[in-house]
Amino acid sequence: LPSSGPHQQSNAAKVIQNGLRPFEFGPAQVPPDFEDKAPRDKQRKAAVAAAGAPPFIRSYVDYWAGLNLAAPPLPRGIEDPVQSFRAEEIEPVSPVDQTRRENGALIRDLANRGGGAKAVAALLDHLGTHAVDLDASDENGWTALHEAARGGDVAVARVLVERGSTPEAKTRAGETPLALAKANHGLQSPVSAYLALAELYTKPLPGPSDEL
């Protein structure tokens, strides 16, 4: 633990008394391009402010809060790491697009809960397919089609693809719906076979130069 100040020493002593090992921090350096990456425009600054502390910082504060202690300050390189944000978290979204994304989240949630193809199709009909962004993703980049693939529901996957879902959409971890279907249900499963065909037939046809 940093040893500058009686409050921090008291925290360390209390942790040791509780039989817990205090955190130890080595030297932390700020990346040389940190200031270059710092937000300057108002929209980006607002996005950074709205994002709040990174998960590690939140866990660190929660740890000390569980001991009824204030978290000791961290070196700047840890306290203020360079963060990245998705474009939609920075760029303004029109009311129409926001509604489409919210409706897409409803479909994604239904697919996640195993609502079934009839329920998904009925909700799409109720909302209007044109008013739904079927590729709307959660914080991990998962779309409704990823949820259907993980659940192994080929009927839901078919409804989503036929209504406009992108078979090649990738999560933040780089996984496509087909990759999830293979990992959870095997290459020979109906959902994997369907998504493999869906990927194949949504790829652009080769042009004359591609055939040479």
Please give the share of residues in helix: 55-70%
User: How many distinct helices?
Assistant: 13
| Rg over CA atoms | 24 Å
Question: Could you tell me the strand content as a percent range?
Answer: under 5%
Structural class: mainly alpha
The average pLDDT score comes to 76
* H/E series: HHHHHHHHHHHHH
Q: Kindly state the number of beta strands.
A: 0
Please describe the biggest sheet, giving its number of strands, its sense, and whether it closes into a barrel.
Answer: none
Low-confidence stretches: 1-9, 19-32, 77-84
Topology:
Layout lengths: L5 H12 L16 H4 L4 H10 L3 H12 L9 H4 L7 H4 L4 H18 L4 H11 L16 H8 L2 H10 L13 H9 L4 H13 L5 H4 L1
Helix pairs in contact: 7-8, 7-9, 8-10, 9-10, 9-11, 10-12, 11-12
